[in-house]
């Protein structure tokens, strides 16, 4: 028995974050772990029942969380991303959603045995995928840019469309079955939807203008955004149920395309909030299910319905709607398979189950079980298959995670060549064509542009690169890049060349604070000029494998003090760059790659 509501909140939050960590640590689909956790602490062991324990607060908490998650996702929908994918995204979000609605409704009627009225309501709702389930899968699978963007855009745009289709179907049913039907009822639906879009747009424009004019101080920007999102969602939802999702999506897209730097700065904050909300809300929803509902999903009609939705309705809607859009067959197969349902489907179906039952449609009582069955089947099937399928279809970034190297010079050219020979992808980024001429001559991957440019954000695919190495001659720029991209890459994966410029008896001196930005690469006594000088004076790259007899201590004893330890390759294939802040101690079986002078013997490889 949970002693208090506060304790229950703490437990849900703790288990949500722990689920995300377990998924990351063991490379499992996060949504599968969260669903399993919720089922274990809820219906299996009966530790908590959030819906019962939270009472009247339960639904508002879920709704607010969904609104913030959807807004955060829409903040990433810049129209510039649509270059090359605008046509398939538009078709899938309109024609594809309509086809899925019709086919899903027919399946619900003939296979699940629902009445036409209930079938069309639930058929409209189930066109959704949503950022709560799509984003964790995209982070896990590391798809190539085009299919990843299509799935992301579809997930965010179709989320409110699915809820609106369900509302629209319900309004049509009410209109047809009313004793005195009034056309104004349908007109009010469209008016409410248009108002929701307008409200989101005007609030987005107004908030953006206030930020640009400096009317909101920096420390209040994030709280202001959250409050305005809640205001936008609530006002639209009060005027017409389920239009709040449409309103916050419109607001997010508006802000995303105004080019306001402060909005970009807040993305990481809101992304962190979204990860926490997704974790806790998913656990709350699954923990609130009862055993009877779970057992009901094994009904043959429900299982048949779910299988047809996964293997027929979704693929057909994607293949038919993307004819002539330029998507390859492999991309259509992947997108046609990946359609997990999540929080929006569960919450909105719960609302309509109550409303339709009250309206006299007794078959609506199985909607919760039907929805949960679709959610759990799709989450597990798509969560575990997206990585395997994307590799089979050649739509994932194969190979080991590599390094994005900023700055093209003789040393970084040598480093990139070494990584390439070790089968780790790398790319050199520089705003100077003259500097990049070295990379072109060596046949290395490169990108011309500034890492801080908006153009680079939209044109450079950074997914294959796990590490960011900044090795330009501008030490302040290196630190700025590390600080900027630290939230994206993680504190342990962002490095800069030593900012120290002179060595004195009492230590090093530098013009900037060395602690700003990422970790210092290799050794702080080696500046970029020192590293370039070594390459130009005959230092060569050596690879040595440590053994039980030839340890890292033995290895260092054989090396000249001027040797630069570059990176370490673990037996698992994991890549680790050397740094004075590196906590991993090289062990037996590890391969050490270093830049050293002369033709020294590779003792570790000689069998010692």
TrEMBL record:
<feature type="transmembrane region" description="Helical">
    <location>
        <begin position="333"/>
        <end position="354"/>
    </location>
</feature>
<feature type="transmembrane region" description="Helical">
    <location>
        <begin position="31"/>
        <end position="48"/>
    </location>
</feature>
<feature type="transmembrane region" description="Helical">
    <location>
        <begin position="117"/>
        <end position="138"/>
    </location>
</feature>
<dbReference type="InterPro" id="IPR003148">
    <property type="entry name" value="RCK_N"/>
</dbReference>
<feature type="transmembrane region" description="Helical">
    <location>
        <begin position="89"/>
        <end position="111"/>
    </location>
</feature>
<keyword id="KW-0813">Transport</keyword>
<keyword id="KW-0050">Antiport</keyword>
<feature type="transmembrane region" description="Helical">
    <location>
        <begin position="150"/>
        <end position="174"/>
    </location>
</feature>
<feature type="transmembrane region" description="Helical">
    <location>
        <begin position="186"/>
        <end position="207"/>
    </location>
</feature>
<dbReference type="Pfam" id="PF00999">
    <property type="entry name" value="Na_H_Exchanger"/>
</dbReference>
<feature type="transmembrane region" description="Helical">
    <location>
        <begin position="60"/>
        <end position="77"/>
    </location>
</feature>
<feature type="transmembrane region" description="Helical">
    <location>
        <begin position="366"/>
        <end position="389"/>
    </location>
</feature>
<dbReference type="InterPro" id="IPR036291">
    <property type="entry name" value="NAD(P)-bd_dom_sf"/>
</dbReference>
<protein>
    <submittedName>
        <fullName>Sodium:proton antiporter</fullName>
    </submittedName>
</protein>
<feature type="domain" description="RCK N-terminal">
    <location>
        <begin position="404"/>
        <end position="484"/>
    </location>
</feature>
<dbReference type="InterPro" id="IPR038770">
    <property type="entry name" value="Na+/solute_symporter_sf"/>
</dbReference>
<keyword id="KW-1003">Cell membrane</keyword>
<dbReference type="InterPro" id="IPR006153">
    <property type="entry name" value="Cation/H_exchanger_TM"/>
</dbReference>
<dbReference type="Pfam" id="PF02254">
    <property type="entry name" value="TrkA_N"/>
</dbReference>
<keyword id="KW-1133">Transmembrane helix</keyword>
<feature type="transmembrane region" description="Helical">
    <location>
        <begin position="302"/>
        <end position="321"/>
    </location>
</feature>
<feature type="transmembrane region" description="Helical">
    <location>
        <begin position="219"/>
        <end position="239"/>
    </location>
</feature>
<keyword id="KW-0812">Transmembrane</keyword>
<feature type="domain" description="Cation/H+ exchanger transmembrane">
    <location>
        <begin position="22"/>
        <end position="391"/>
    </location>
</feature>
<keyword id="KW-0406">Ion transport</keyword>
<keyword id="KW-0472">Membrane</keyword>
<feature type="transmembrane region" description="Helical">
    <location>
        <begin position="275"/>
        <end position="296"/>
    </location>
</feature>
<feature type="transmembrane region" description="Helical">
    <location>
        <begin position="6"/>
        <end position="24"/>
    </location>
</feature>
<feature type="transmembrane region" description="Helical">
    <location>
        <begin position="245"/>
        <end position="263"/>
    </location>
</feature>
């Amino acid at each position: 028995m949970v002693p208090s509501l506060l304790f229950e909140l703490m437990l849900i939050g703790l288990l949500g974050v722990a689920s995300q960590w377990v998924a990351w640590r063991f490379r499992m689909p996060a949504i599968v772990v969260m669903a399993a956790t919720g089922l274990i602490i809820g219906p299996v062991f009966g530790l908590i029942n959030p819906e019962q324990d939270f009472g009247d607060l339960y639904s508002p908490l879920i709704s607010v969380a969904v609104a913030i998650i959807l807004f955060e996702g829409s903040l990433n929908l810049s129209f510039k991303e649509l270059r090359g994918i605008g046509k398939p995204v538009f078709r899938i979000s309109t024609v594809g959603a309509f086809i899925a609605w019709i086919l899903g409704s027919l399946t619900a009627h003939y296979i699940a045995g629902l009445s036409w009225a209930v079938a069309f309501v639930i058929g409209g709702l189930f066109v959704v995928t949503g950022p709560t389930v799509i984003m964790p899968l995209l982070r896990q699978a590391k798809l190539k840019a085009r299919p990843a963007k299509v799935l992301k855009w579809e997930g965010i745009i179709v989320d409110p469309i699915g809820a609106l289709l369900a509302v629209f179907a319900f309004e049509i049913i009410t209109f047809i079955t009313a004793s005195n039907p009034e056309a104004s009822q349908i007109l009010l639906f469209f008016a409410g939807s248009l108002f929701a879009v307008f409200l989101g747009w005007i609030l987005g424009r107004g908030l953006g203008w206030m930020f640009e004019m400096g009317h909101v101080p920096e420390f209040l920007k994030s709280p202001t955004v959250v409050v305005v999102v809640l205001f936008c969602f609530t006002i639209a939802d009060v005027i017409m149920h389920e239009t709040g999702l449409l309103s916050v999506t419109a607001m997010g897209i508006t802000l995303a395309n105004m080019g306001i730097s402060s909005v970009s700065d807040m993305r990481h904050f809101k992304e962190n909030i979204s990860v926490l909300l997704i974790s806790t809300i998913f656990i709350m929803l699954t923990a609130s299910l009862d055993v009877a509902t779970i057992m009901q999903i094994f009904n043959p009609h429900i299982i048949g319905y779910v299988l047809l939705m996964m293997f027929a309705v979704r693929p057909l809607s994607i293949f038919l709607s993307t004819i002539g859009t330029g998507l390859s067959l492999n991309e259509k197969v992947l997108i046609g398979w990946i359609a997990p349902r999540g929080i929006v489907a569960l919450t909105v179906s719960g609302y309509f189950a109550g409303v339709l039952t009250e309206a006299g449609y007794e078959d609506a009582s199985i909607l919760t079980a039907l929805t949960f069955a679709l959610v759990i089947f799709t989450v597990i099937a798509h969560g575990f298959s997206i990585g395997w399928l994307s590799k089979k279809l050649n739509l994932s970034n194969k190979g080991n995670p590599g390094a994005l190297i900023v700055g093209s010079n003789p040393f970084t050219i040598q480093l990139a060549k070494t990584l390439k020979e070790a089968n780790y992808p790398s790319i050199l980024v520089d705003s100077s064509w003259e500097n990049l001429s070295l990379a072109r001559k060596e046949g290395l991957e490169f990108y011309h542009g500034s890492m801080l440019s908006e153009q680079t954000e939209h044109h450079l695919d950074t997914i294959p690169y796990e590490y960011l190495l900044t090795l330009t001659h501008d030490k302040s720029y290196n630190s700025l890049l590390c600080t900027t991209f630290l939230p994206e890459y993680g504190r342990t994966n962002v490095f800069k060349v030593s900012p120290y410029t002179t060595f004195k008896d009492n230590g090093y001196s530098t013009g900037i604070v060395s602690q700003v930005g990422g970790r210092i690469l290799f050794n702080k006594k080696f500046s970029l000029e020192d590293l370039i000088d070594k390459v130009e004076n005959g230092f060569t790259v050596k690879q040595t494998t440590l053994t039980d007899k030839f340890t890292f201590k033995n290895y260092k004893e054989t090396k000249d003090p001027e040797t630069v330890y570059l990176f370490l390759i673990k037996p698992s294939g994991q890549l680790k760059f050397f740094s004075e802040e590196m906590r991993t101690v090289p062990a037996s079986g590890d391969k050490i790659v270093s830049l050293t002078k002369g033709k020294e013997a590779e003792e570790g490889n000689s069998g010692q």
